[in-house]
Amino acid sequence: MTTTQRDDGPLHLIGNNSPVTEEVTVEPTAVTGQIPRDLDGVFVRNGPNPRTGTSTHYFAGDGMVHAVSLADGRATWYRNRYVRTPLSENPGKSRFQLAFHPVDGTIDFRVTTANTHVITHAGRVLALEEGGFPYEITPELETVGPFTFCDALRTPMTAHPKICPTTGELMFFGARQRPPFLTYYRAAANGDLLQAKEITVPRATMMHDFAITATAVIFLDLPVVFDPVATAAGLPWRWDDTHGARFGVMPRHGGAVRWFEVEPCYMWHTMNAFDAGNTIVVVGGRMPSLWRDGPADRTGGLPRLHRWTLHLDSGAVTEEPLDDADIEYPRVADADVGLPYRFGYVTSFSMDPRPAHSQIYKYDFSRGSARQVLRLPTGNTCGEAVFVPRAETAGDDDGYLMTFVHDRARDTSHLAIIDAADLSGGPIAEVRLPVRVPNGFHGNWIPRNRG
Ligand SMILES: [Fe+2]
């Protein structure tokens, strides 16, 4: 099986960024420690894995979902599957070739890499990428097909929708490179689309994530703007100092958007947001700039955890750094999304394709953003740490963190299961796999009793 990591080539194709070449269903080779018996479900994680073995940019690879099934204190299988999209089914054809209709100029949003996230809502598992429609897959990773909310979805869908833990509603947006640039959507807990509303913004910007509170949604209008000339570097986006930066606050059910000017920055990911009296608090990974000279420019700095306080009375914004560590993949417990919260989780981040090791940080915001660190062994790296609650009523550190870890020396991977209440003991279980799981983006836990 050709899963070996490459040593030479562009950064996004070497080390554990190297794509794997086969789809497999295998049993784990060993388990270190004890898998908690209350874990009954499937851990899924999406990421780019170009079928041709090469891609113009890390973000452009075909979506491959990796999954480990856990039940009764055992790990029963690992499998990896491409999301069957027109791109993965036509290796070598460009997105433009497949999506652009030469006669009427329309874009087919079924053409997507589907490579960024995988979520569950209303009993469906959806693989997401911000340039296209969601793709429904099964918990066993078979592709069902594009999902369009009964044709109500008329734009792409962000890879970072938010599910309200109180109402079960799914809130998301669709960003496009031509008008309408931004559309807001809200779906009921049963999956019915309740609302689609165009949001007026001056131009197309790269809007990767947003945030919700108990009452509002918050759009991020940041200065990475659409520029077809930048396509030569793999993606049509670049920094623009003239654009400024603003957060747009809108009631969840619609209404006027109120824009708050912030210091120019980019933010791939919010950690969370919540209402706090006459303010709204937003926490996320702030970068001073991004892609000033186009998508190949790596000089903009890495995300650091940052807090913005939006003062609803005055319109002022207070901004403060929360840590000086380079981080990515901020997450909170699903039960805390949009609500005041105590704990948040991130992974250390580096542009080095072979960092010495990864660290997982747990922040306690009741103690001045104090951080607890889990340092993986030398040569071991991981991506996003997903919080999995111990029970449906679990609090925001009553559960586990799960992440795929790559061991560079052995060139194999394992699923690490960590006690979220106390990172100091290291993983409580490691599910060792006979294959390598490449670096990727985002994932989730699918409980077997999903509704
Ligand atoms: Fe993301």
UniProtKB/TrEMBL annotation:
Alphabetized Pfam families for the sequence: RPE65 (PF03055)
Source organism, top-level taxon: Bacteria
Cofactor binding, per record: Binds 1 Fe(2+) ion per subunit.
InterPro entries: Carotenoid_Oase
Alphabetical UniProt keywords: Dioxygenase, Iron, Metal-binding, Oxidoreductase
Enzyme Commission number(s): 1.13.11.-
The protein's required cofactors: Fe(2+)
Gene Ontology terms for molecular function: dioxygenase activity
Family assignment from sequence similarity: Belongs to the carotenoid oxygenase family.
Name this protein carries in UniProt: Dioxygenase
Biological classification of the source: Bacteria, Bacillati, Actinomycetota, Actinomycetes, Mycobacteriales
